[in-house]
Amino acid sequence: MKNNQIYLIVLAALFALTSCKNSTQTKEKTPAIWTEEQAQNWQTENEWLRGCNFNPSTAINQLENWQAETFDPETIDRELGWAKNIGMNCMRVYLHHVAWQQDKQGFKGRINKYLDIADSYGIKTIFVFFDDCWNAEYHAGKQPDPKPGVHNSGWVRDPGDLLFQDSTLVTTLESYVKDVLSTFKDDSRIVLWDLYNEPGNSGYKNKSMPLLKKVFEWGWEVRPSQPLTAGVWSAPLTDLNKFQLENSDIITYHNYEGPEQHQAAIDTLKSYGRPLVCTEYMARRNNSLFSNIMPILKKENIGAINWGLVAGKSNTKYAWDEPIPDGSEPPLWFHEIFRPDGTPYIQEEVELIKSLTGE
Fold first, then answer.
1. 15-29: average pLDDT
2. How far does the signal peptide extend, from start to end residue (predicted)?
3. N or C: more exposed end of the chain, with fewer CB within 10 A?
4. 161 in helix, strand or coil?
5. Which backbone phi and psi does 143 adopt, to 5 degrees?
6. What span, in angstroms and rounded, lies between the C-alpha atoms of 130 and 194?
7. In terms of C-beta density within 10 A (0-12 exposed, 13-18 middle, 19 or more buried), how is residue 51 classed?
8. How far is CA 328 from CA 113, 249, 323, in A?
9. Model confidence at 12, in pLDDT bands (50, 70, 90)?
10. Phi, psi dihedrals of residue 261, rounded to the nearest 5°
11. How are strands ordered across the β-sheet holding 190-197?
12. Closest CA to 77 of 354, 303, 310, 280
């Protein structure tokens, strides 16, 4: 009887231990997605977000922006001041794991410095971790000079093709994401974490799915107080879109089309019952304008984050597929609001933006 009792006690203890272990494993794998109520509370707290994808005019890409030798707080301060003057209150800013890898503490210190500058103007920040756009290869140190008249000639992916060539890279990426998220997980200056820009771009398609899933899992393990998202951008990428929409705390998206197509996208995304932020829009050649899109976004209480603030080394005043090899002025700027000296490209646009933002 005693032996049976001991056996039962041991068996019960083993069952409890196994159950606890399985519960822990399940908990680690279970998505820690915000409830719709949490998401709506976030929107109420932050009201209408409006701003730009921001890269200082002196940086050709993410690495030139964040490396110690070329980090440029003076230009950042000046240009964010221009944004503040037209009523912008949010910037979307790209990070890069190489800048963290070469100087972890310095990199985080520069993030903090950037946040101090932005916060001094009442500007909150959306940080972006990974990106499938533009150049596949990258390196630390001096970055390339711009190619005259070529849109984003020096912008780099993260992690790009290296992910498929180096099986150990994912361990570095996990440490990077968790370190940055853990450091700034309760920082009120950060309004949103954009985990992966345009997954599946550059022909990757579903090759990007494993990293997309991993970065959400890493985010859930840290579970910052700010929401996590990855924006949808291409209708044919159905598998990626489904995962992004079902696992984002806040729904984000890109749309560079005219008002009718943009409104149709909004109407579809509203069905998810979560706040919306358009994290890329405004391409003048495509009839995606401040005049016909920004009023829609304000009316719908959708965050309005256009591409580009100040024309500079990224060359995004030139269109995606229309290079001007001699570097002369394009007949119509594709992106950007200000010239490098702070004068507006189109004064009437700036007046419209100010009327919508209340400045």
1. 41
2. 1-23
3. N
4. coil
5. -95, 160
6. 8
7. buried
8. 35, 43, 10
9. very low
10. -65, -40
11. 228-229, 190-197, 124-131, 90-94, 50-53, 303-307, 276-280, 251-254
12. 310
